[in-house]
Design goal:
This protein has helices at residues 24-33, 35-49, 66-73, 85-95, 133-142, 157-162, 194-203, 220-223, 225-228, and strands at residues 7-9, 56-60, 77-82, 100-103, 117-123, 143-154, 172-180, 183-191, 206-212, 239-246. By secondary structure, the chain is α/β, with parallel strands linked by helices. It has a single domain (20-246), classed as Rossmann fold, CATH 3.40.50. The strands form two sheets. The protein has a seven-stranded mixed beta sheet, sandwiched between helices. A three-stranded antiparallel beta sheet has the order 1-7-8.
């Protein structure tokens, strides 16, 4: 989960817990209608997923369920989990009792059998983690052979653009302050260079099929004219999108 960086403060020694329980409602309200989430990340995910009718999809880090709902509307059989119990409650309110939603931590063994899913979506999740080894192994385990993992993470250029003195090639912890629908929150991420991401995917048994830097949805220009006026090309960099195939 995420938003466009507003007031970056990069620091390797700032310890901030990503406590979504404390601002879940505010984040969910922002997520439903913001440029970065509703008109950039979510449309890009759906475009990369393509025809999902009848496919079993795990939404890893489902938050309040916006991506899950969009996938279900397109005919997918959706399952989701999130570390935040409050986010899972909000997802249940959105999706109803018939959707399998659980509180689970991606850094621990997941409560699903081997090969249970055709696709997994991990949107704005991995960039909170220093070590991707265990989480990627679990996501590979629950995917059937040939299944797809759609990953969305902070674009690795963002930290360097905001802080020229930072080392692009270092795995670096940094924090950023946000305003989610009037509620202040601080999130802490782990920056890693592009090659470290793709190396981790390969080591976990994935083949990188797509790397995407998509533009926002066309209607973003009409809905957010002031924000989009900052980008003469009609596009901006905030996240990086991958489609991986399980070997």
């Amino acid at each position: 989960m995420g938003n466009m960086p507003a007031n970056l403060e990069s620091s390797a020694d700032v310890a901030v817990e990503n406590d979504y329980d404390s601002f879940a409602e505010a984040y969910a309200a922002e997520n439903d209608s913001s440029l970065v989430n509703a008109y950039y990340a979510r449309p890009a995910i759906l475009d990369l997923a393509g025809d999902v009718a009848g496919r079993r999809i795990l939404d890893a880090g489902c938050g309040a369920g916006a991506v899950s709902a969009a996938l279900r509307d397109r005919g997918a059989v959706v399952t989701g989990f999130d570390r935040s119990a409050r986010m899972v409650e909000l997802a249940r309110q959105r999706l109803g009792a018939d959707t399998d939603l659980r509180v689970a931590d991606i850094t621990r063994p997941l409560p699903y059998p081997d090969g249970a899913f055709d696709d997994v979506v991990a949107a704005l999740v991995l960039h909170y983690l220093e070590d991707w080894t265990g989480p990627l192994a679990e996501l590979r385990r629950v995917l059937k052979p040939g299944g797809r993992l759609i990953v969305v993470v902070n674009h690795p250029i963002i930290l360097k653009m905001a802080h020229r003195e930072s080392d692009y090639f270092a795995t670096t912890k940094w924090s950023d302050e946000y305003d989610f629908n009037g509620r202040k929150a601080v999130l802490t991420y782990w920056h890693r260079p592009l090659h470290a991401m793709t190396d981790a995917f390969t080591a976990a048994g994935f083949r990188t099929a797509v790397i995407s830097e998509p533009p926002p949805a066309p209607e973003a220009h009409e809905l957010f004219p002031d924000e989009m006026a900052r980008f003469p090309s009609g596009a901006f960099l905030s996240f990086l999108f991958f489609v991986l195939e399980a070997a």
